[in-house]
Amino acid sequence: MGYLIAALFLLVITFILSLTLRGKPQEHAKGMLHEILTGSLGKMLLGALIALVIIGIFFAGMIYDLNN
Question: Where are the membrane-spanning stretches (predicted)?
């Protein structure tokens, strides 16, 4: 769980840096962002995102059933 939080934190920070920096630092931040998304951390983030979507659909279905 700690790796997931760290990966998400790194993803957000590098995304913000890639938007705000100019020149060579921006290219470095974009490279780091690409490395995070295509590496093992990206696979872990994708798996967590898929799990959260499935859990969200499950809970939405439960709430819908309670209202009907």
Answer: 46-66
Distance (Å, whole) CA 49 – CA 43: 10
Other beta carbons less than 10 A from residue 14's beta carbon: 20
Domain with 11 in it: 2-67
How deeply is 2 buried, as exposed, middle or buried, from its count of CB atoms within 10 A (0-12, 13-18, 19+)? Answer: exposed
Burial class (CB in 10 A: 0-12, 13-18, 19+), 10: middle
pLDDT at 1: 66
How many domains does the chain contain in total? Answer: 1
Model confidence, pTM: 0.54
